[in-house]
Amino acid sequence: MGMHSFVKNIPRKLNNIYRTYSSQFVPKHQIVSDNDIKLLRNFIDNSQKILVLTGAGISTESGIPDYRSAEVGLYEKRNYKPIEHMQFCSSFKVRQRYWARNYIGWFNFSQCQPNATHFAIKNLEVNNKKVSTVVTQNVDNLHKKAGSKNVIELHGTAYRVICLSCKATYDRHYIQEKLKETNPNFEEITDMVRPDGDVEISVERLAEFTPPTCDVCKGILKPDIVFFGDNVPRSRVELVKKQLTDSDSLLILGSSVTVFSGYRIVLQALEEKKNIAIVNIGPTRADEHVSLKISARCGEILPLIC
């Protein structure tokens, strides 16, 4: 079904099929307007090769909170600060705390499933041939679960673990089994899921936990994620730059582009005079630079178009 098969005045009740999501982490928002739908549809129709940049805001409907959304983001609710790269590398206690909490949070985090936004992006890429590349700031693997093909995980993935010494890599599910073996009596129950899989655990319990080490060299294991204070690998930055140059439009979904690794994509798009559109609940760092900004829930507007 082509893009122009969109049915005008679609009954709002049909959109209820897209409302099976965890509203706990979705910030307050207005119902999308018919004019917003028209504007975004025109943006997509008039684009030939779209680079899509996604942030934590598209995964809130899968039950994963973001960091900065008003009232529901982790910074807002719990004054939560993600772990920093140098802390992880230099402190055994920090690694112990991280891995214990990640171990407990992994089941819920890894069970999260793609939502309507992820599937709409996949349809725009695979079925409609509009999206050439998906660049995501998320580490939750949901784009790949949804079936997107050309995905660049800007900040890495929680599903892969790397040794900081010998660079051996491991599947995160394998590490989970190792952690079960070395920590057979470590059990906690949590309903919390964070963007990086982290959760809260008591200090007393943390001291009992044995973090994983590399099978090859016994070195420090770290999720293949760009922690705060670390840099996105240069090769990945260059790949994103090339993919954006080869595209004619940039569509930003669910990201405030506050972090520079995302904002510099906007700066490049502006320099290369790309068409830019943003769909995000709340303000973004790039609002004043773009001609089309829609304040809406991505999972509501995207399925109405694709």
Automatic annotation (TrEMBL):
Per UniProt, where does Zn(2+) bind? Answer: 163, 166, 214, 217
What terms describe the molecular function in GO for this protein?
A: metal ion binding; transferase activity
NCBIfam families, alphabetically? Answer: PRK05333.1 (NF003738)
Please tell me the species this chain comes from.
Cryptolaemus montrouzieri
What's the protein name? Answer: Deacetylase sirtuin-type domain-containing protein
**Where are the active-site residues found?**
155 (proton acceptor)
User: Has the keyword Ribonucleoprotein been applied to this entry?
Assistant: no
Per the record, the coiled-coil ranges are: none
The Deacetylase sirtuin-type domain extends over 30-306
According to the UniProt entry, where is the signal peptide?
none
Under SUPFAM superfamilies, the record lists:
DHS-like NAD/FAD-binding domain
InterPro entries linked to this entry: DHS-like_NAD/FAD-binding_dom, NAD-dep_sirtuin_deacylases, Sirtuin, Sirtuin_cat_small_dom_sf, Ssirtuin_cat_dom
Residues passing through the membrane, by range: none
| Keyword Metal-binding listed | yes
Q: Which UniProt keywords apply?
A: Metal-binding, NAD, Transferase, Zinc
